[in-house]
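quick one, 174 residues, struct below
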Amino acid sequence: MKSAFSLSHATATDVPRLVRLVNRAYRGDASRQGWTTEAHLLDGQRIDEDGLREMLAVPGAAFLMCLDEKGELLGSFYAHATGPKVYLGMLAVEPTGQAQGVGKFLIKAAEDYGRQHGCTVSKMTVISVRHELLAYYERQGYRQTGATEPFPTDPRFGIPKQPLTLLVLEKPLA
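---
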């Protein structure tokens, strides 16, 4: 893992660059440069500025940002601490900078965020047909719980090209 990474918590002024990063990582041609693209599964955007601001305003929530030594945004991860669980979502890494440890850095930071807020379990949802992503999270210690959630129907989060289901993954925070 690269030691030049630093962690920052996003503020309202970071919203435009976070929206750019998340949409580049998940959708469109830019996302195809990395291995985490959803462009083959969904059309449209992944998030807009209003949606990201709403997420940032949730009590107990934070967008964690991984920055390089120049302060450039390399990746981000949403963490929402609620009771004994921290929900993690929307891990985004700049497509041209994937497979360099940014994701692992952010996962660890998000789990630490949960621990700092008294959480004992980390939870996330992953699209069921994202086999490579499920395998990645399993290598990070996450396990499928057997539970599923419906994929959001709000077009602000994308328009599915096929029926999609979310699998619930959890990891104990020791």
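Helices lie at 15-26, 28-31, 49-56, 102-116, 131-139.
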